[in-house]
Amino acid sequence: MDSQYFSHVRSEIAPLIHLTPSRVLEIGCGTGATLGWLRSRFPGAHLTGVEGAEENRDALARVADDAVIADLDQGLPVEGRFDLILALDVLEHLKDPEAMMKAAAARLTPNGEMIISLPNIAHFSVLGPLLFKRRFDYAAAGIMDRTHLRMFTESSALRLANDADLTVTEGIVNGPDNPRARLLDKASLGIIRHWLTRQYVFRAVHGSIQSPVNWRPSGLTQQANAQR
Q1: Contacts of 189 (CB under 8 A, 6+ apart)
Q2: pLDDT tens-digit map of 146-161
Q3: What does residue 97 show for φ and ψ, rounded to 5 degrees?
Q4: Contact, 66 vs 48, CB < 8 A?
Q5: Where are the beta strands (DSSP E) in 23-148?
Q6: 54 in Cβ contact with 69 (< 8 Å)
Q7: Alpha carbon distance 173, 200 (integer Å)
Q8: Angle, helix 154-162 to helix 97-106, in steps of 10 degrees
Q9: To 5 degrees, how large is the angle CA 125–CA 115–CA 7?
Q10: pTM of the full predicted structure?
Q11: Which residues contact 4 (CB under 8 A, 6 or more apart)?
């Protein structure tokens, strides 16, 4: 598999992190690239990475304080509580993402936050071929990654968090951020935003009442964050 698959830095999550974490856990962290980025932002944080691919052990150990290689389908092999937990591009690869979400929620401190990303099967690139060509083709990466075991839409993504007694407070969408998609999103007043969305990235905290989520395009979110 392409090494970039495991080494992408998810810096677009920056606006979703509201606290200064002291203990961070990333589930399915690859080589630890995002943990390394967090180290530069929060140098005092203790970083734990849990990863399923043995070939990533050495690279992860150079970044994380605790590097754990384990089969994520067998549960979450860590103890203690964390005030920031990341589950980015991992839950869709698991046989039982609901169980992993509940395990992660149990490791979240009372005031902690969890950042999650999930692919959107309702993206036009999937719906178009399915509707007009009756085709449903898997690929090496992306929404139709052939290693994805579960598919999500906005409602099922929120339900995944809610079923773990977490509430989604805000989120960003990856997809409506290139010039053409941004124009379509603006022209439709956001009505077709969910069909332009490749991926939902959201912040979840302990809570039981789910309000509608204001999904912001990641490109606009990053621009606003840079201007602060």
Answers
A1: none
A2: 788 898 999 999 999 9
A3: -65, -25
A4: yes
A5: 23-27, 46-51, 66-69, 82-88, 108-119
A6: yes
A7: 5
A8: 40
A9: 70
A10: 0.88
A11: none
